[in-house]
Each structure stands twice: as structure tokens, then as C-alpha cells.
## 1
Amino acid sequence: MGDADIEITFDDTRRCRLLLLISKGGGLVLRHKLQKGFTRRQKTIDDTDIKRKITQIKDSTHCISEVQYKRIYPDSGSSSPDDYDITILVFLLRTLFYRTSDPKWKSGYTLNDTDISDIAEIVRIRELRNEVKHQYEDGELNETTFNDQWRKCEKVLVRFGRTDIADLSNKLEKFKSEPIEKKSLEDLIEQWEKLDEDMENRVIETIKQHSARVNARERSEKEVSDVLEAQYFVETSMFEQAKQKLNKDGFIVIEGAQGEGKTTMGKKLVENPKKCLKINSVADWEMYSSTDDIETVLIDDMFGCTMFDKSESRKWLKIFPQLMSEVSRQKLKLIITSRTYILDDAQKKLFIEHHIKKRNRIEISSEKLECHEKKQIIKNHLELNGRKFGKNLIDSCVRQLNEPSSFIIGFPECARLFGVQDSLFHKGSSFFKAPMTHIKTCLDTIFKNKDDFVFLAFFVLWSQPSQSLRLSDLEQSPVKTPISIKRPIEHLGFSLFYSLRHIPNEFASHKNFVCFDDKTEIFRFQHNVVGDAVGLVAFVRNMTAALEFCNASFIERYIRIEEQSDTCEGNKNDEIVTIPINRYADLCSVIGKILLPDRTVSDTDIRNLRDHVCSVFGQTSPLKGNETDAEIRNMRDQICTIIDQMSFLQRTGSNDDQYMNCKIILHPAFKCRSFCETFLETLRKQNMLPYFLTKHVGTITASVLSITDILDKQDFESEIGVLTYAVNNSHSPHPYVFRR
């Protein structure tokens, strides 16, 4: 032993051992998590966006000291994770890889013993660091207290780090026998005290209060600025019309089909991106208490992304008067985008003609593009992606566009994909004859040439209700993974543990089709067209799984039944999904779930089961006493999975809406007698037929609201059922479903 080890008492030794365990052991585990986060995102601490984010936090909130910042970014050379103490490691993990607004970060928050999420475990390590620091200073530490504290620290570190660090338990055990240099440990304590824990708490509160708003404004500014600076955008005659409408009335609704460039045009109409707020939901809007510093609000897909969202649209209706008041006072310009069929649904069901008048709407369509505009758009995208091409190629592409096409995707999106994707570019002008066919073929080739995890990743993203995935949800333990992610993985027969680790990597390898928002840490398809193509491929590869997870919008647009496949309007057979007769019952079951979501589990059921799990696996109940850790983990995993499934069923229920949304029964399949018979029989077997036939879908008031000048609407409040709705809306005067 050196001089620093002389005159150390037993109490000193125990305190030093604990300090070694938490400083070196905790640092080891957190450093592995930090490195894992960087590797998964293919980034380093020196990346420009990472450094900008940390520097901005230091300058604007002073939440890290200059000394800490120099540890991360020294004046010369690069830092090493070995230079970071626990405080810096916790700060970096939270700032870069986890949701900063989670209440568990807040000092004084009481963690549930059953919560073993990453954030909870990081917070535990931070709190253990503080406990050990105080114990080091407080004097006596008897052997019993030492052993209890050691087991407590070791349990957290092993549980959190065992999947990343081989033989972690033995590595931690060595700290009980490692030579002690008391002087170095005292220096460490002194450094910790300089960090000023009060500052850390202020940092956490500041980030929690402001990060969401700052991130939203930054993201909005970046998205709009990117388009304003983009070289590919062509200011067409339709753009000029939209600009005139917006300048005249301060309000415009840009409508059109998918891929027509509605969002891009909306961004291009913004004059000052620093004073623009681009939002997608009411929740985004509610973060702002004032619009004093905002000149333009852009609401993208206001009434729904792929289909009419009744619940979200009703929320917007409550806010609309406030927005229009700002517009009328010329304090604000308002831009809304929506697919045409969704906007028509919204106007029909919400009666918003007094808000959105005909003069406020502009429909953009590829058919309205001038020939020279199309040529310029193709040329810009090809040049942007460094393609070598001649004038003949562009002329040929435009000629294909002028011929009847099997499927309509907006020309701007076709041009983007043509420039970005090698396999589509090599198709030449034929791509523009049948774009969806070629996009589907391109994806199918990728899935076949790569391992099955590529298809899995795309399928899981397509199966999500919002067709988006949070990175944090993919980083959870299998037990904590959301059920909406577990179910598609299990349906395809993959291992949940390995799948979760592959999915982000597959997305990173296919950035032409999937994008990642660094601010929100959300994966999305580059365009809805890509999601649709994934769905079409999925039906070819695994119809059973695809049927299980397709939504109402996909069914309406792409699915047809065998007896009608020869009469499909517009789409060629390879661009729709034909359901064979022997699969009618499967499709009927899916439609039944869309109409009548399962809601058989109450809040009380879930609370009671959670309480039971806590009592069984809590510290006060050791079960039989002879179970291994693996057996207990397995039992707990199974029960937690059941809880997740119950919670999922409850969340997807429709009791919040007193009326059934039965638009899907207007699907062409219901004009076929055999399909209708199968549908009714399927509902009967599932004991849903009486409920389906008696559930109300609306009121007569809604049907006559447009002629209230003639009729007193209070006399027409009677609720109507599905039969009346279908007869009133069906193009067929006697659909078979009503002759049963």
C-alpha cells in the first residue's frame, strides 16, 4: 500500500468500497449506455448537431458549468467517456437519448419499485451516488449497513447493465478487494461537491418546462427553412394562385391527393420561418399560450393524415374561432393542408362551411401542372441527386404522364422518388406510367435481397395506428415495450428481444424511405405513398398478418374482394389487394373490429391485476422461497404482458364516442351478396350482430342541419342506426346487407 492507504479504519474502508462501487461501477454501466446510444444513432459526442445542442443548453440555461463543458469539449483534442463522472453521464444520457420531460427525472420524485425502465434505473444510480456521498461524510458505517447498501447498489447496477457488460457481477465484486487510495476518493468527493446539486435540479426543471416548446419552434423553423432554401421547388401557376389567396384573405386550405406537394407548398408560402409555427395536432398548439411572436401558423393534415379523424377535428373546432379572430385582425396568417376526400368528410360531418368557404380552398393536382412546369420539377430533382440525364429522358417522362395511368400518385412525389432511388431511376420513363407498381417492386426487391429484419422493421412501422415509431419505445425492455409494437413482431414469428435492436438500424440503412426526426426522435415513412406500398407488399408476403394490422383507410383504398376484382375502378390488379372468397371471413372480422373495437376490460380490472402483481413480486412476498431469479423474471414477464394486452384493448375501445363510425360499410364489397352474408354471420358468431344493428351512428339533426332555415332542428333529434345511414349514403339503392 502507498502512503495514501495508511491509517484507514474499518469504517473508512467500507465507505471507500461503496464509493468505488458507485463511482467506478456506476460509471462503467452508464458509459456503456452512452456509447450504445451513440452507436445506435451512428453519432459521436463531437457531431455538429450534438455539440450545438449541448452548447445551447449551457449558454441559454447555464445548467452545466464551464468546467463540466470543458470535460466534454476540451480546448484541444477530443474527450473520452472515461473523463465523465456520473453527473455528466446522467446529463448526457438524459439530454441526448431520453425524454427530458419525464417526471421521474425531477428531484424528490418517488420511484415505484416495479419500475425498471431505463430512466428509472439512471435516476436510481444518480440517487445512490448522492446517498453514498453523504454516508462517506457522515462517519460510522457498520458492517450490516455496509452490506445492505452494497446489495442495494449492486442490484441496480447488475439489473441495468447486465445485457451490455459481460460478467458484470464479478467485475463489481472486485471492488470489495481492490486496493484503496483514499486520497483519490476524497478528491472525487470534492469534485462532486463543486457540481452544486442545486444547479442540477434547476437544470432539470428548466429543460422540463422549455425543451418541448423550444424543440417545436426549432423543428418548425428548420422544416420551413429547408423548403424555402430547397432548389427543387418550382413556383408553379397553382403556387401563385395560392399565394394571392393567402395574401388577400390571410387564410388558405391547400387540398389534393397524396404526393401532390400540399405540405411543401404550405411551407413555401411562409415568409419568415423564424416566426412560423408548423404543427400537426391540437396538443402541439396547446403548448403556446400566446401567438404574439408568430406571424404564420401551418396546420398539416388538420383533419387526419390518411382518413378523417373525428376526435381531433372536434378539438380543432373549439380552437378555430380563436385562430380566425387572429386572421381577421391581420395578426396571423393561417395555412391548412388536407387530402381532398378527408376535407370533404370534415365538411360533411362537422358542418364547417362557415369556417372554410369555397374561396379559401385551392386544390393542387398534377393534371393542372403545365408541361414546362413538370419538366422543370423532374430536372430539379435529378440535378439535386446528381443524376446524369438528357433532355430526351425528361421529355419521355412527361409523355408518360400525359397518357392514362393505372394509379395516381402526385407527380411531385413521383419526381422526388425518381431522383432519390437508384432502382426507380433505372426504370426510366416507364416509372411514371405506373409509379406505385415500381415503388412496390423496389421495396419487394429490397426485402428479398436483405435479411428478414428489413421487412419486419417496415411492417412494424406500417402497422402502427399513426405509422410512426418513437425511438424510446424501441429501446425498452421486452416487458415494457408497447403492445402495438409487440403484436406485429409476434405475428411474424420473430424474437422480440433481437427485433427491437434491429429495427432502428434497418431504418438508418434505408433513409430514402424512412426519415428520423432528431428533435422528437420519431421514425416515419418519407411519404404516405411509401407506407401504402409497404402494405401492398405485406399482403403478398403474409396476408394473415397484413389483414390483422391494416387500417380502415387502407381497406377503403386498396382492398377489393375476388368477385369484384375485375371491375375495380382505376387501379390495376397488381396495385390492389384481392381477398379470395375463402378469406372473406378474415376481412369481415377485421371490419368488425374497426366498427366495434373490443372494450371488455375496465379500469378496475387493470388496477386490481397490477396491485396483485406488485404484491406477488414485491419485497414483502417471497413466493415459495425457492424460485430462481430467471423463473421469477419469466413469471413477471408473462403477467406484465397480459396487463399490456388488457391496457391495449382498453385504449383502443370506442366508449369515448357515443356513435359508431361506420363509413367503412360503404366499401364496394358490401354490394356483393355473398360477402354481406359472410359479414353478418361473422358478427353473429362473435355475438356482435345485435350491437351492430342497434348501435347509433348519428342523429337526424346532422342530416338536416344544412336546411335549418326551413326546419326547426330541435324537432329532429332522433338518433339513427346503421341501416338508415347505409341507405342514405349508398350509391346502390338496395345493398344486400340491408336485405338480410
## 2
Amino acid sequence: MGTSPHRIDHFLVIFFTFVVMESCISGGSYSVGVCKEEEKQALLCFKNESKIPTNWVHTTDCCSEWDGVVCDNVTGHVIELRPAPNLTVNSSQEGPQFPAWLQSQSHIGLLAISNAEIQDEIPTWFWNFSSSLGIIDVSHNQLRGEIRNALFWLPKDSMRLAVYLGSNQFSGPLPRIPVHMSELDLSNNFFSGDVSSFLCHVQNASYELSILLLGGNGLSGYIPDCWMHWPNLVVINVNENQLIGSMPNSTGLLNILESLDAHMNMLSGYFPPSLQKCTHLLKLDLGENGFTGKIPTWVGTSLSNLTILRLRSNHFFGELPPSICHLSFLHLLDLADNNFFGGIPLCFRNLSGMINIDTNKNEMPQSMIFEIFHESALATTKGKEYSLDITILKLFASLDLSSNKFSGKISIELTNLVGLRSLNLSGNNLTGNIPKEMGNMKLLESLDLSKNKFSGEIPLSFSSLSALGVLDLSYNNLSGKIPSGTQLQGFNASCYIGNNLCGLPLPKNCSVDDGQISKYENEGDDDSDEVDWFYVSMAIGFAVGFWVTCGSLFLVRSWRIAYFQFLDNKFNSILVWARVSYNHMFNVSF
């Protein structure tokens, strides 16, 4: 979608107004004169009552120095007010009541009062006070009450009507909307009831809506098969509601849909087959639902533009289809907490979106009008769940396969994903050594390999992962010394428990038997099978000395007699010495 030339600050009220105040004095050319005192005071009074901020102050001339004031150059009377096109109002001045001065503005085109701390109901006059109103943004306040059909009576001559009421306290059923509305945000309120009457109200017309945000409410029931009336939708967000059932077949008619977020509902069934026709999808989030079955093979071909695929916490099973590796634009792949099994596909090396981050490919959708709406996505990293906006998503790559039944070894091909900032393979049945090539993944900020069956030592290359902020290798079969490096010694000991490791930060010191690194390992040579000649020489010397001595006595009879006579004499001498010493000690004589 296109990019607006400038961003609207949500702490400001921006409105266009064209008010003509004709003077009682006629004639004269329209230029700057000297302001009349009584008219200056009237304008200052108008400013104070309306709370419209301007540079109007009593110390300056209203004709020559006040923005938007036009005077007759002959009489000095104010003949016209021309407020600047981008006149702004500090939103902190608005709350807690809804600004009543808006009622006097008859030709406002854009109104944005977000984050203004307004704690009030929207008055009934608001919905029809300006025939040229095209943009309404009163999000992130504490506005309350029901809307019902108020939106339906908004101006019908506006070319692109956008209404943002998100993050307030509105309640009741979803309101009817005019077919010409282009963007609608009702998210994070207290709307309730089913969505059928909202989606299926118009049967003989097509809505022009491109952005529909209904997430974070209390909506329930089935999603009706009425998407054929909404062919212009680019963004659909119905997350965090209580919707049930499966995706209707008419979803496939949304052939320009780029973002579908339905996470945290109670949807069920197989992976929606109707999505095969939504070939422009960039983001698909079906996480935290009850979907089951295998990932169909067409996902990698029909949805080849996907940047975000999030299916965590469902009941999917089976091996990952090789076609998933055709999703070369993926930045975020989250399949955690399912029942997938088999090996991690070797073809993951083709996920080039996790190797080279190209911020210019597959731009995520955003509002066509002043960029009020920006796409975001949930990412679980560093043990927490974060909502990442479009700016961070362009630079962030994550792979989460945790809490499944994957088995086998980590292939070297997986370590080619050097653009990853988060990798989570925990809670599987992975075996073998941790590849030393994982040390080449220099951008990794979070690495979780816990609760698997990895063996061997921690690769020395881990010491070079300088960006690593979270590491968990606990509950494996790892052994040996934790490699030296500021990064690895700085982690909590709980990151290494459940193994046979030693060295800091663990309290267990390393010995030779514990696997302390030998000089051969320090030199990088694999000499574990080399013979230690020191011990071999000692054994040979013992054998030679023993047989030289004992063999001589056995072969030469005169030496043998002399040797044993020598031993007898020595033995008798020792007995005599012991007897004399004993008697002397106890004063006993013979």
C-alpha cells in the first residue's frame, strides 16, 4: 500500500477549517491593515472560549501578525479568517470532557484527538457536525457508551472515510457502517455479540473498506460466509475474541488481502483451504486456536509472499512439507506448541528472508490515510511475547519450533540462517552434538535449546556470540567445561542445569575426569586416540627390571644360595635387635 507524505502525531488535533467572517464594511482591497482594538478583543475572546491554539496574543497586531486573520487595508476591519491548513491543538488540553468547541466548526475535514485523556461519551451531534469530515481518530482515550448506527450517518460525500475508535471503552453490538468507508478501527473495546449482522448487513452492494480492525473485544459466534461483500479488504484483524468454527469459503474471494490476524479465538478445523486463493497474503496469524491436521503443501507455493506465518498453540501435526521452504520472504516463522514431528527440513537454508534482511521487499500494509494504522505482529523471544511494529519487523527474524516432537540432529544447513535474532528449538527430541557452526549466527539475541537430548560439549564458538542476551541449554546431556567467554559466564546457572557441565557460572569446578580441556583440545587437534608413551615406557621398564633380577636368581644356583643366606642373616639380626630393644625398654635381663 502507498505511503503518506507525512505522519500524524497522535498527540495533536489536526483539522482543516474554512470559515469566512464577512465584515459590515464593504469595499476595499484585501490586504493587511491596522487591527481595530474591539475586533482584536473579540477574536481573543473567541480563542479563549473555543480553546483553539493560535499565535493570537494581545501584544501583537491582529492584522499583520496573527495567523489566518485578513483585514481591509483601508478601514482596518477584520474581513476574513483563514486558519492555517495544519492548525494544531495540543491533545493534553482536551480531557476529561469531549471538546464542545468542535460543534462550532462547520467544515472540519480531519480530526485526530488520540491520547487526549478524554473520559466522556461522544455527544450525538458529533456524528453529523461536519459535512466534509473524512478522517476521525479519537483512539486511545476512555470514551464510553454505545455507537450502534451512529457511523452509518457520517457524511456520505467523503471520498475516503476513515474512523479510528480503538482502545476506548465502547460497548454494545458492532455498529452499521456506510459502504463508502475505507478504514475502520474498533479494536480493544468492549463490543460484544456475533459478527453476522455486521458482516452480512448489506446484500446488494460491496463495501469499500480496506482496513477492518475488530480485535480485542468480546465478539462471539461463527464467522459468516459473507466476505463476498467486502472485496476491497487488505487488512482483517479479529484477534482476541471468542469466535468459533472454521474460516468460511468466501475468504478465498478476498484476492487482495495482505494481512489476516485471527489469533487467540476458538476457531477449529483444518488449515483453511480457502486461503489458497489469497495469494497476496504477507501476514497470517492463526495462533492460539484449535486448528488441526497437516500444513498443506500449497502453502509454500500459493502463499509464497508470506513474511509472517504464526501457527503456534494449535493441534497441527505431521512432518513439515518441503514446500514450506519456498517461503523465501519469511522473517517470522512460529510453529511452537503443536505436534509436528520428524526432522527439521534441510531445505530451511532456502529461507533467504532469515539470511539477508531486505527491508524493501514485501512492504507490510499500513493506512492509506496519514499512516494512522501500522501493521504489527506477535513474536515470542527472550522468554516473553512482544508486539513488534512494522519498523522492527523489517529488521527482526525469528524461528520458533519449540514444544513439538522434532527429532534428529541439527543440520549445518540450519546454521546458515545468519540473519536470525531469535532461535527456539526447546522441548523437542533433538539429539547429537550442537554444531560448532552455530557460532557464526552473530546476530542471535536469544537462543533456547533446552529440554532436548543434545550431547557432547558446548561448542567453543559460542564464546563469539556477542549479541546473545538470553541462552538456555538446560536439561540436555551436555558434558564438559563451559567455554570461557564473558558472554557465557554472565548467564544465570539455571541456563545450564540438568547437564553434566562444569565451570563458571556453575558451582562445580572442572577436573580431568570432568572433561577439562586438554592441551590437545586447546590446539584444536583430535588426538583422543593417541598412545601415551610415558605409561608404556614405565610398564616396559618394570617388566625388564623384574625379570633381570628374578631370572638371574632362578638360573644361577650359587647366586640363589647366597641371596637366601643373606636374607636369613638379615632376618636373624633383626630378631636380635628387636629382643634387645624390648628388654632394654622394660628393664628385663636374660
